[in-house]
Amino acid sequence: MNKESQNHTHDILIVGGGLAGASLALAIADLPLNVALLEANPPDSSCTAENDRYEDEWDTRIYAISRANSKFLTQIGVWQQLDNSRVTQIRAMHTFGDQGGRLDFSAFECGLNELGFILESSLISNELWAQLRRQRNLCLYCPAHPVMLRLPSQYHASAINNDLHVEEGDIPLAAAQLDLDDGSTLSARLVVGADGRESWLRKQAGLATHSIQYGDSGVVANFACEQPHHNVAHQWFGVNGVLAWLPLPGQRISIVWSTPSEHAERLQALSADEMTSEVAKAGNHALGDLHLLTKAQAFPLKLIRVPDIIAPRLALIGDAAHGIHPLSGHGINLGFQDAYDLARLICNDNNADPGAARLLRSYKRCRREETLLMQSVTDGLYHLFNSHLPGLPLARNLGMHLTNRLGLLKTFLARYATEGL
Fold first, then answer.
1. How far is it, in rounded angstroms, from Cα 376 to Cα 1?
2. Model confidence at 50, in pLDDT bands (50, 70, 90)?
């Protein structure tokens, strides 16, 4: 291959084929733009609905998808293709404080069909990639590994991130360039970083992050339950962190236990019977006896703030742009909304220049409020229920009781959380 054939030019290059990156690629695939997606590791295509292993096993990585994002996934042709037998509607949610507080949300009382949906990560990922592979005007680089990123001047980076007025003709804005380990070079007017919370692209661009290590881990596992869950999600705030039971199809649940790392390690070391007993006890045996279906796994929890999610010819989406505590279940929902908003802005700009400074500034502004709100709420709740200041436990539980009595407030909170912006 000669040097010329190793250079490829695109309008938009998305780095990272996870849920956020893949959904963005589909959202802009029909635009008259040259779009490419780069991913090092494609999803396991063996996990299909026709495969017995997939039928018999359930992912431990489960997502709560908001109503707003189910609509987005419908718009890009994914939601309607999912196997409905593996999707659970959340009809209600019961949240319990550490000293008797309680807060209940009901879809019926809020005038909704459901509060959201529970489904496996692989279910969405496999369908996203099935759709991507059908797109004739989308270039897939997979597997592919970037080794160097080159962006336009740092002067321009400072200008767009501080909302300074910069005319597009003031500074030559060359396309961003990405070198791959096979010696080839990709150029694009816009590079989108969708490569996860440890984003290589974010580091290469020199975009700062402010991280807070919670000292907690999220323990996930799936269980069969003796009693039907009736599509109700449960959440307990206790001495060992926050435990969520999420309904799966049939009499199954998935748990997410955000707990101190020492406790998480102990949970993983337990036998199946011991693990089941501890989870059932922490959930007050709300669904009777449990039976462990999958080995418990754990991942560290941290808050990640990225003050500048844009740089010249670069935008970040998904976990590359933010990280929040999982107690709200909104991490992936923020990522999908990043993809939705960026695609909307590109489309509304009549496809003129997807990497224009004004478009990137608009993207940064429109994502700032929701991201900051969700990070502040989840971080605030974490610290509220992990504080043992005198009188605070009683106050926070009384607050839950009061909110539970205010129907209009509960309806507003539920609709905001489920419908999105």
1. 51
2. very low
Q: Are 240 and 184 in contact (CB under 8 A)?
A: no
36-45, 91-100, 130-139, 408-417 — most confident range:
130-139
* The pLDDT of residue 300 is above 70: yes
User: What are 303's strand-pairing partners?
Assistant: 212
Cis-peptide into 43, omega within 30 deg: no
Supply the CATH classification number for the domain 4-43+127-210+303-383.
3.50.50.60
Helical packing angle, 357-385 and 331-348, nearest 10°: 160
Could you state, in order of their start, the residue ranges of all structural domains in the chain? Answer: 4-43+127-210+303-383, 63-120+214-302
Backbone phi and psi for residue 356, each to the nearest 5 degrees, phi listed first? -60, 145
Query: Which CATH number, 3.40.30.10, 3.40.50.150, 3.30.9.10, 3.40.50.2300, labels domain 63-120+214-302?
Result: 3.30.9.10
**pLDDT class of 141 with cuts at 50, 70, 90:** very high
pLDDT value, residue 48: 41
